[in-house]
Amino acid sequence: MISVDEHLDSVLAQVEPVAPVTLPVRRAQGLVTTADVHSRVDLPRFDNSSMDGYAVRRADLEGASSENPVVLPVAGDVAAGDQSQHVLAPGQVWRIMTGAPMPEGADAVVKVEDTDGHPHEPQLRVHPDEGAHIRRAGEDVRAGDLILPAGSRVGAGEIAALLSSGVTEVEVVGPVRVAILSTGDELVPAGEPVGPGQIVDSNGPMLEALVRDAGGHVVHVGHLPDDEGATKKQLHRMLDHADLVITTGGVSKGEFDLVKKVLTGQGSMEFVEVAMQPGKPQGFGVLGRRDVPVFTLPGNPVSTLVSFEVFVRPALQRRAGRREGAQLARGFATTGWRSSPDRQTYTRVRVDRDPTGAYAVSPAGGAGSHLVGPLAVADALAISEPEVNEVSAGSELDLLLLRPRAEIDARLHAEGQGDEAGEDG
Ligand code: AMP
Ligand code: MG
After folding, report:
1. Which of 6, 339, 365, 385 can pair with 345 through a Cys bridge, CB separation 3.0 to 4.6 Å?
2. Which protein residue's CA is at the shortest distance from atom 16 of ligand 1?
3. pLDDT digits over 217-267, tens only?
4. Beta strand 359-363 pairing with 328-333
């Protein structure tokens, strides 16, 4: 048996980011840039007003105050989007709106609050500073400035910054197209009638959700019968269409465990026993002309989930050029439980808070890796090291979170408020 870290290191050493592609900015959401991006333009693009008010020549307002307002005639209105270049003659003002271009000759804006707001002959009650309420061209960004360094994940703010800077396309690590294949004659696709001896294929849709959640692009969720020819054919088709392939089932020691049989000796494929519980039988390799990483995960749903979190998620992130890693936390065991000797044990736990505010964890359901029911209430996997045979109540553990921390904290907060309301009432 090899350790979890040994297997993870070997997987990550073989996984490369997918080839870069150039995409329109809006379609690059969630993807990681491969080159520095610089602004094409100055921002703001032109001098404009930051307030609704009047564009003025300061010299005309010498000594103006609330007690001694200066009244000047309005030459016209400049709205945001006005494309003509207006000129401000001495002794006049332009009524101007936020974002409208400054008329030539104006050197300040008096905001409407410092006037009576009159449309034609306003009383102006201040002598503004030079450049007051003017947003100068280029004061935010200069043409050529770095907007987004290589390795940035494109999100809402990045999209706004890029498009404002005149950038319409970006080069990013391509979307990771993931194919998922469930194997086993006993499986029935969700929604179809389940006959005697059959079960619903839950791994396929579960992995689909996990892959999406990790930022992958699911291109195929399929099912393979326990048939050597069909397995071979489908797996090879996927190597042409996907950037990462995940199979579940068919890698144990059973007579019909054909995935292992079909893939043995292909590419860098290796089938190993990892010192972990659940998830011991793991297969991984890089296959085909396009060096596609292939994971063959054990079929028990809990083993599939744990294997995904421990090996596939980090590999998927690496393939996407991302580097955020697993969501980890620490928590204290509320009760004791047994842990597999000589194996790193991942126990599904529910997270609560202890009186000090720390995470307190208790097992969600039994230890069997076929137990799907408790998956719905598990918030995290509590990790106990191979040398630990028994987790004792009160011990502190590493947690691999199965939900965003904010979601767990929001639930705990809501439950805490419920308790208080109960006490008050
Ligand atoms: P296997 O690794 O093929 O021997 O499967 C191990 C166990 O996991 C068996 O009880 C299977 O029925 C179950 N299993 C395999 N694949 C799935 C799946 N896609 N969804 C739910 N259970 C599965
Ligand atoms: Mg099977």
Report:
1. 339
2. 299
3. 999 999 999 999 999 999 999 999 999 999 999 988 877 789 999 999 999
4. parallel
Distance from residue 272's CA to the centre of ligand 2 (Å): 17
**What's the gap in Å between 298 CA and the centre of ligand 2?**
9
Query: What's at 271, amino acid-wise?
Result: F
Which residue lies with its CA nearest to atom 14 of ligand 1? Answer: 299
Find, among 54, 47, 46, the residue nearest to 70 by Cα. Answer: 54
- Which of 187, 227, 261 best tests ligand 1's pocket when mutated (most atoms within 8 Å of CB)? 187
Which residues surround ligand 1 with Cβ inside 6 Å?
A: 182, 184, 186-187, 199, 201-204, 248-252, 254, 298-301, 370
Q: Which residues contact 105 (CB under 8 A, 6 or more apart)?
A: 57, 87, 88, 89, 90
For the chain, helix (H) and strand (E) counts, in that order, are 8, 28
Q: What is the pLDDT at residue 260? A: 93
SS3 26: helix
CA of 257 to the centre of ligand 2 (A): 6
Angle at 258 between CA 252 and CA 263, to 5 degrees: 100
Helix H or strand E encompassing 210 = helix 203-213
Tell me the percentage of the chain whose pLDDT exceeds 70.
98
What pLDDT, on the 0 to 100 scale, is given for residue 253? 80
Strands (E), 189-291: 199-200, 217-224, 244-248, 270-273, 276-277, 281-287
How remote is the CA of residue 260 from the centroid of ligand 2, in Å? Answer: 11
Residue type, 215: G
Burial 63-90 (b: 16+ CB within 10 A, else e): ebeeeebbebebbeebeeebeeebebee
Q: What is the pLDDT of residues 378-420, one digit of tens each?
A: 999 999 999 999 999 999 999 999 999 999 999 999 998 766 5
Say how far apart CA 395 and CA 397 lie, in whole Å. Answer: 7
Q: Which ligand is nearest to the CA of 248?
A: 1
Contacts of 13 (CB under 8 A, 6+ apart): none
